[in-house]
Design goal:
The complex is a heterodimer of chains A (370) and B (291). In chain A, 23% of the residues lie in helices and 36% in strands. Chain A is α+β, with helices and mostly antiparallel strands. The chains are: A alpha+beta (370), B mainly alpha (291). Chain B: This is Sugar ABC transporter permease.
Chain lengths: 370, 291
């Protein structure tokens, strides 16, 4: 059964279009994360689903019902705001009971539902307190509790963890994940933090400038990005990008291209593509993730890897893992991830191999060439 | 160690001295003098003889004193709550506007507040003039005849109250607007998702969150309006038939008109006691409501 379906959604503020023709289908009970840099329209899209923003065109469907022009209260959605939006003059109990009191539910029912939500969120001890007497994490839980008591069809989270410190954020991330398993409702979560997106989501929607870049499971996006933006956005540290031109291209039984990197001396790499091959002379970009760059005593044994000479700039030693930040001879940045290898790289220049099987190829517009 | 702490005390005393001296000379001493004078038969300038409670006994036998107390409280009733509610209403409408339109409308509402009282009363004497006033056709349409409002004992005080509200309302609007702007939009968005109607949003969110400012506005108004004098002095001089005679005017008449400094001080003490009593009472009531 479908939870939420967005069809050809557009949003314009006057002449400025901020959401361009978005199509997303979310299954019931799925945890979907909208992720993208700030200003990409992810919060606007969420607010449109909530009914807090008008939809310029397109159809929003929640559990089989067209709610595009329905008022927010009747859509069966609950929202957790970035600021929590807890009413400062009401106690935790009254904050959580607010929607039920507005709906004039019987007192016993309100008490039962609020206490149930408080139990799930471990807030039983704090029901008589005012929000100002709570810690950031507790306030966050009250905000979630307020959403739970309504038993909505869809939970909407608008960057709910961005006001918390790093440690609490990790903890609340797990709690939200546990809550999702416990109540099994459809959840849509907006964040600019790709780590949050990777850890929470069943399905990630990557947005940029109001356009959906790719939709897929976290590992799908990581292993098989559709374009250079998704490749660079998902994964931390970022994917390394090197520019080059197509030196030779063979169309035939095996579509191979030779790409000459804009790096001396003879860094030519040969890739096999399944799709159409680009013409000779086309500018392209190669991408490789930091963990796939090989260093140390490496030799190009099978001849399928590009070899680079890198100038190391500085190294982040994190214990189990270290990141070496370096520059190529042409000045492009390359980050290398090293695990269980504490041998400090002393020398200024190191040589690195980029194995062909780990390379991603993008055209000048950033589209993936497969 | 000892020396150091004494030095600090001296420094502290030196630093607060300018304020303490000003306070003592221009506030504490005159207040003391007022209380002291109320037990003497002093004229406006110069010392008098101790006459005990005679001034107070005279005051409680003075019919005009009771009239003044009644009129002062009547004026407070006509101004304080209406002025606060009108201010809130206008603020809630203005705050919905955006950008320069909001600023422009706000300026229009605030403008009367910057006018001196003489100009305000002059304007309203023109507006309400029985023969030429622009408001007279309106009064005629409702009542059926023109009324010389400042010469009519029923109309005089409400009209003074109307002018006062028109004059001072801008300041209340300003206070309410800043309070309304402090309520985040998120609260209303969360409430509308929860199905709260506009009225419910006002009752359950806006009103309780505005309450501290409302209490402030009410208290400021109360103190200000109990001290009513200028508008009455300029528009009705207490008439007609003493229907707008207020306490400060009585003080003025006794002190400056009849050279009875002692008796005027006694009336001033009475006003002081009324202001303190009413303010404390109101503060307690407001505090109880806020909880």
């Amino acid at each position: 059964m479908s939870g939420v379906t967005l069809s050809n959604i557009k949003k314009a503020f006057g002449p400025v279009e901020v959401i361009h023709d978005v199509n997303i289908s979310i299954e019931q009970g799925e945890f979907v994360v909208f992720v993208g840099p700030s200003g990409c329209g992810k919060s606007t899209l969420l607010r449109m689903i909530a009914g807090l923003e008008e939809t310029t065109s397109g159809v929003i469907d929640i559990e089989g019902q067209d709610v595009t022009h329905q008022e927010a209260a009747r859509r069966g959605v609950s929202m957790v705001f970035q600021s929590y939006a807890l009413y400062p003059h009401l106690t935790v109990f009254d904050n959580m009971a607010f929607s039920l009191q507005i709906a004039r539910r019987p007192k016993d029912e309100i008490r039962a539902k609020v206490e149930e939500a408080a139990r799930i969120l471990q807030l039983d001890q704090h029901l008589d307190r005012k929000p100002s007497q709570l810690s950031g994490g507790q306030r966050q839980r009250v905000a979630i509790g307020r959403a739970i008591v309504r038993q909505p069809k869809v939970f909407l989270f608008d960057e709910p963890l961005s006001n918390l410190d790093a440690e609490l954020r990790v903890q609340m991330r797990m709690e939200i994940s546990r809550l999702h398993n416990q109540i099994g409702a459809t959840m849509i979560y907006v964040t600019h933090d790709q780590v949050e997106a990777m850890t929470l989501a069943d399905k990630i929607v990557v947005l940029k400038s109001g356009v959906v870049q790719q939709i897929g499971s976290p590992l799908d996006l990581y292993d098989n990005p559709d374009n250079q933006f998704v490749a660079g956005f998902i994964g931390s540290p970022k994917m390394n990008f090197l520019t080059g031109t197509v030196a030779k291209s063979n169309s035939g039984a095996s579509d191979t291209v030779n790409i000459r990197l804009d790096e001396p001396p003879n860094s030519i790499v040969s890739l096999t593509l399944s799709g159409p091959v680009p013409k000779v002379g086309t500018a392209v970009t190669l991408g490789i993730r930091p963990e796939n760059v090989e260093t140390g005593d490496v030799t190009d044994a099978d001849g399928h890897a590009a070899e680079l000479t890198l100038k190391t700039e500085f190294t982040e030693e994190l214990g189990g893992v270290s990141y070496v930040h370096s520059l190529t001879e042409s000045g492009a940045r390359v980050t290398i991830e090293r695990r269980s290898d504490r041998n400090h790289i002393a020398q200024d220049h190191i040589s690195a191999l980029l194995p062909t099987r780990h390379l991603f190829l993008f055209d000048a517009d950033g589209a993936r060439l497969r | 160690m000892r020396l150091k702490s004494r030095n600090r005390t001296v420094t502290a005393l030196l630093l607060i001295a300018p304020f303490v001296i000003c306070y003592l000379v221009v506030f504490a001493y005159p207040v003391y003098k007022m209380f002291a004078m109320s037990f003497t038969n002093a004229p406006l300038i110069g010392e008098g003889e101790w006459i005990g409670l005679d001034n107070y006994i005279r005051m409680f036998e003075h019919k005009l004193f009771y009239t003044s107390v009644y009129n002062t409280l009547y004026f407070v009733l006509l101004t304080v709550v209406p002025n606060t509610l009108i201010g809130l209403g206008i603020a809630m409408m203005v705050v919905r506007l955006k950008g320069w339109i909001q600023a422009g409308i706000l300026v229009l509402f605030f403008m009367p507040y910057i006018l001196p009282v003489t100009v305000v009363t002059q304007i309203w004497q023109w507006v309400l003039d029985q023969q030429f006033g622009v408001a007279q056709p309106l009064i005629e349409a409702i009542i059926g005849r023109r009324i010389s409002v400042f010469r009519d004992p029923v109309w005089a005080m409400p009209m003074v109250a109307l002018v006062t509200i028109w004059w001072t309302n801008g300041f209340n609007v300003l206070l309410f607007i800043s309070a309304l702007r402090n309520i985040p939009d998120d609260y209303y968005e969360a409430a509308s998702l929860d199905g709260a109607s506009r009225l419910q949003q006002f009752r359950r969110i806006t009103w309780p969150l505005l309450w501290p400012v409302t209490a402030l506005v009410l208290t400021l108004q109360l103190i200000l309006q109990l001290k009513i004098f200028d508008q009455i002095y300029l528009m009705t001089q207490g008439g007609p038939f003493n229907s707008t005679y207020v306490l400060l005017q009585l003080v003025y008449r006794e002190a400056f008109g009849r050279n009875q400094g002692g008796y005027a001080s006694a009336v001033a003490v009475a006003l002081f006691v009324i202001i303190v009593a009413v303010s404390v009472l109101q503060y307690q009531l407001l505090k109880a409501r806020g909880k």
